[in-house]
Amino acid sequence: MQSEQYKGYMLWGHAILQQKEILHSERYAASGTITKVNRVIEASGVLGEFDTGEEAERAGIQWARAWVDSSD
User: Fold this and answer.
1) End-to-end CA distance of the chain
2) Yes or no: domain 2-71 corresponds to CATH 3.30.160
3) What gap in Å lies between CA 18 and CA 3, rounded to an integer?
4) What Rg value do the Cα atoms of the chain yield, rounded?
5) 27 — phi, psi (to 5°)?
6) Whole-prediction pTM value?
7) Cα–Cα distance between 40 and 48 in angstroms, integer?
8) Alpha helix (H) ranges present in the chain?
């Protein structure tokens, strides 16, 4: 899980391991969460699937930044 502070919010990027079939390589679903003063402000659904956990976490952070920018 990656996190960063942005415009007074804490942004969280999540990677959820997705392994649909044993013979296929692992994929990671991305999601994002926005908190402020330890309260959840908004959370995404699944944003897509990625080859690495790091890519998925970055996608979650990017979604959270865009949400904050559109809500200010």
Assistant:
1) 25
2) yes
3) 21
4) 13
5) -130, 160
6) 0.89
7) 21
8) 53-71
